[in-house]
Amino acid sequence: MKHINPLTAGILQALGVVLYIFILVSLIFPLSQNFVVPTYGGVNFASFFVLLFFSSSVLTCGVITFAYPFQLVLKKNVKDAVAVIISMGITLVLFLAIISLIVFFTGKTTLQQVANLQSTHSEDFYRQKATEAKQRLEDKKMMYENNKNEVSPDVKTINIEPQISPYSIDINTGEKTLIEP
Known about the structure:
181 residues, 3 helices, 8% strand, elongated
């Protein structure tokens, strides 16, 4: 394998880590908007998924960060291995500073737009749920009004004023019978 300048290797590794994190966040964020966390036997698997993503990310970032320096150490070139890791660390700090400045100076309007979008979405969502609940209530009222004079076929008798009258009337025959206490 050809020897790469430690500074260049560190910059490329830092760029690889930043790119990996960007791709991971770009994939996970849209999925998390509609993701329903499964439960099995009362156990919520959200923590399982979080830890699974975290450990696979640690493994991936570890390979990106330490694979080339490890090869250099195996070739007894410890000085270059340390230089690669230090240049990568410095580059990551610079990337973090640049991204933070971009978000700080340009992200205010974007964050405000996201907040407005979320509040609008929430209002629309709750307005729709309230409309659906009203419609269900109206449907139940209408069903009650249509069926209040009808009796379910499995009901055979109706007690007429059971606290006053000890009689019941059979719906099919209209026969009045005395209820035994």
